[in-house]
Amino acid sequence: MSDIQEAVRERYAAKALQMADSASCCDTSCCGMEDTVCGEGYTAQELASVGIDPTASLGCGNPTLLADLRPGERVLDLGSGAGLDVLLSARRVAPTGHAYGVDMTDEMLAVARGNQAKAAVANATFLKGTIEEIPLPDASVDVVISNCVINLAADKRAVLREAHRVLAPGGRFAVADMVALAELPAEVKRSLDQWAGCVAGTISIDEYTAALRDVGFRDVDVEITRETRLEGVDGAIASAYIRARKEVTA
User: Which domains does the chain have, with CATH numbers?
Assistant: First the structure.
């Protein structure tokens, strides 16, 4: 495991333990930035349906809404954390669809499986693994979602390549993530703590778009949803909805 992966794993293992101690399903910050308004797009009703505190701030957006999920589809959440988006996806694709979540943190997987049991959602599976090496076969899902996680990966092309691999032809990529609007200082990019906090790992919209196209995605679209300026940091970051599609083979 790389130093960056280990820093991220340790941070989110600690968050999982905090959740277990407080009996809360989700963290109340967005990637460690408590002053950022996040999680827009979730309704109190759908959060309550899977036992989530409606007052919590959750990730960078709502990828389950962005993905336009339909009954019968197979969904994969990259970096599924406490399981919110997996459980909501499972409800959206029921009764014949299935939702998968992959996470590398044992403590977070335990929280997610506990939340699944409390929500009584049967059509969901949480898998241990990294988003750079997804433990699913080729063309095994119809939709890949993620919420403020891909920016944490040191090798984002590996993540996007894997997302493309597990998608069936015509499958959809629909994630909420952080992007850089301006160049961040070198000292920020070197900081593992900032990596784990969704800052140093952000890349520009052009770089994100190019990486998606390079691994085979088409119809790439990036929509900025909220800009954030960080105290003491010259660069700017933003929450974004990022969509793409895997081509249909002949």
Answer: 3-27+57-246 (3.40.50.150)
Asked if the bond preceding 185 is cis, omega within 30° of 0, the reply is no
Q: Identify the DSSP state of 220.
A: E
> Do 234 and 182 meet the contact criterion of CB atoms below 8 Å apart?
yes
Helix axes 205-214, 156-166, angle to 10 degrees: 40
Residue 133 backbone class (left: φ over 0; alpha: ψ -120 to 50; beta: rest): beta
Number of H-type helices and E-type strands within the chain: 9, 7
pLDDT digits (tens, 9 = 90+) for 32-85: 444 333 345 677 677 777 766 544 545 677 888 889 999 999 999 999 988 999
Contacts of 27 (CB under 8 A, 6+ apart): 15, 18, 19, 56, 82
pTM confidence score: 0.83
Contact between residue 7 and residue 193 where contact means Cβ atoms under 8 Å apart: yes
**Cβ-based neighbour number of residue 229 at 10 Å:** 12
